[in-house]
Amino acid sequence: MEVRNDITRKTTVQKTNRKNNGAENKPALNLFCRLSISDIGAGSKKHKTKLLTIKNKIMKTESTNLENSYIGSADGRDVYTYRNSENNPLSICILSDEPFSVEDAWDTLMEVYPNAESKNIVFIEFDKGVAMNYNSQYAAVFHEYNLNPELLETSLSFTREEYEEKRDDGIVSFDDFLKNIIETVIEEGGTFEDAVFIAEDAFLKSEEDAVRTYDVRFNDEEDSNSKGFRESFEYCKQYIEMYNGSNHSYFADYKGGTVSIVCNETGETIYEEEIK
């Protein structure tokens, strides 16, 4: 299945991750995603206004230390937990006045934190601010995640039914959509608020996609032509699948070149393949 670049883009948070002593990054997920959590500079004015409203609402969440507990000590390092807001992941910090590595932090965590091996824990960063809060020199911060698809669904401004109405053959189901967002947020060290923002951003972006039209363009090293279509992405994709490899229309003239699907409104190339 081909990936549509305009509506399938993984959103990233610039954090350092590690789970279960070093899991490899997964490939990009099939999400309705375009913008990063901190970047709302793209898209229409209407889209950006809606995102600003959502982001401002999220940022108003009070940062309160709901849980602050001493867990134990090992290897000369102390382990504390805290939570900044009700829906955010539990933070676990490894504290010491002596420098230590990520590997050292994991060793201490596994020794002290109850059932750490069976929990969804991700290393986030070394944080000087957290260290200062605990009167220490160094602090390694981990997040323990328990993101719930049901909770995420009830926190969204759109419904399951509204999402499904916008689906086409290239888009995942609503359940997989929620699952993919949660996996992405965990991989990137984000928060529950980040998950809500990503989902809202993706859905709003899909509203813009619903009114866009696409054309089929032929290119080689010497020339370029287009069909002049103002059709859906699916229509253009089916057209290419039906005629690529034949002598129909420009396919005969551009063998060895490329055929692509281009958005008429943005000029962006959405899909491309070699002409057989």
Shape: elongated
**CA-based gyration radius:** 24 Å
Approximately how much helix is present in the residues?
25-40%
Percent range for β-strand residues: 15-25%
Spans of at least 5 consecutive residues whose pLDDT stays below 50 are 1-55, 57-66
Structure, explained:
A 5-stranded antiparallel beta sheet has the order 1-2-3-5-4. The chain is 32% helix and 20% strand. It is built from 8 helices and 9 strands. It has 276 residues and is of the alpha+beta class. α1 (45-59) packs antiparallel against α7 (192-209) and α6 (174-187) crosses α7. It has helices spanning 45-59, 102-112, 128-133, 149-154, 160-166, 174-187, 192-209, 233-243, and strands spanning 67-74, 77-83, 90-96, 121-126, 138-144, 214-219, 224-226, 258-263, 269-274. The chain is elongated, with a radius of gyration of 24 Å. Among the domains are: 67-144; 214-274, no CATH class.
Describe this structure in a few short sentences:
With 276 residues, the protein is of the alpha+beta class. It has helices at residues 45-59, 102-112, 128-133, 149-154, 160-166, 174-187, 192-209, 233-243, and strands at residues 67-74, 77-83, 90-96, 121-126, 138-144, 214-219, 224-226, 258-263, 269-274.
Task: Give the arrangement of secondary structure elements.
Blueprint: H1 45-59, E1 67-74, E2 77-83, E3 90-96, H2 102-112, E4 121-126, H3 128-133, E5 138-144, H4 149-154, H5 160-166, H6 174-187, H7 192-209, E6 214-219, E7 224-226, H8 233-243, E8 258-263, E9 269-274
Antiparallel strand pairs: 1-2, 2-3, 3-5, 4-5, 6-7, 6-8, 8-9
Helix pairs in contact: 1-7, 6-7
